[in-house]
Design goal:
By secondary structure, the protein is mostly helical. 63% of the residues lie in helices and 0% in strands. The longest helix has 28 residues.
Length: 123
């Protein structure tokens, strides 16, 4: 298989990333603390010495997760504005219209989410 030379740095970066993840997971498994299964009192949850009230596995509302996903989505949108802000003169009118289309798509998504009631906490 003959790869162009421009792919070599990408493959090196991907290999380093996969190697880092593998070493981190293996290191955490072998070097991390080992749980003893016999002592249930020692392994129970405590918060500042106060006895536990209820179960720690209570389910969260889906609204919480939906809001978190929407925050990440619209936060990542802001990241894409940085290259445009740095190079807006070089992009010219064509770049301006591309950014307008990008913003319009996100506004459509925002209005869709709003109309579907994803931002209403009272429901």
């Amino acid at each position: 298989m003959n790869l162009p030379e421009s792919y070599i740095p990408i493959l090196i970066q991907a290999g380093v990333a996969i190697g880092f993840v593998a070493i981190s997971l293996l290191g955490a498994h072998f070097l991390g603390p080992q749980q003893k299964k016999g002592n249930s009192v020692k392994n129970s949850s405590w918060e500042c010495g106060i006895p536990v009230e209820g179960n720690a596995r209570t389910p969260f509302s889906i609204k919480y997760f939906l809001t978190a996903v929407l925050f990440v989505l619209f936060d990542i949108e802001i990241v894409f504005f940085y290259p445009y802000a740095v190079n807006f003169r070089e992009f010219g009118l064509e770049g301006f219209f591309a950014v307008l289309m990008f913003v319009a798509i996100f506004f459509l998504a925002f209005f869709y989410v709003w109309k579907r009631g994803a931002l209403d906490w009272d429901k």
